[in-house]
């Protein structure tokens, strides 16, 4: 499982971004933790993304929102990866609830380290500032 943190009162943004924009399937959370977690299936592999409430004074400082640590989500193929980038980019440009804070523009050089050993990929920061890599 992959765990990320979001600010208090923003789980509905997680549903919009991870559920709608990324098309991850929402999963039920334990009843005692309803309202404090959001779970999503990453793929049919059994891997899940767990979204939990973080601490504003620690997890969402300006420094924390510029962290390089990130999960990497592997795309099925180049076409689906491009389609996903376009959906994230459109949500970024449109703004609104759950909109990502950043996204590499489709067709531009991605914002990660450059080198021949890196596969096709792009980066985004979700609505809470979590850095995300999407790769082949």
From TrEMBL:
Record's superkingdom? Answer: Eukaryota
- Which InterPro entries does the entry link to? Glyas_Bleomycin-R_OHBP_Dase
Gene3D superfamilies in the record? 2,3-Dihydroxybiphenyl 1,2-Dioxygenase, domain 1
What protein is this chain from? Glyoxalase family protein
């Amino acid at each position: 499982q992959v765990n990320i943190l979001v600010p208090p009162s923003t789980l509905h943004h997680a549903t919009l971004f991870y559920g709608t924009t990324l098309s991850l399937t929402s999963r039920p959370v334990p009843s005692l933790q309803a309202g404090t977690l959001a779970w999503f299936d990453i793929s049919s592999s059994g891997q899940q993304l767990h979204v939990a409430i973080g601490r504003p004074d620690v997890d969402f400082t300006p420094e924390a929102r510029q962290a390089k640590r990130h999960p990497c989500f592997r795309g099925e193929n180049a076409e689906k990866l491009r389609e996903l980038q376009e959906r994230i980019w459109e949500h970024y440009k449109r703004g609104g609830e759950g909109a990502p804070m950043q996204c590499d523009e489709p067709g531009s050089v991605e914002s990660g380290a450059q080198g021949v050993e890196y596969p096709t990929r792009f980066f985004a920061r979700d609505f809470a500032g979590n850095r995300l890599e999407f790769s082949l």
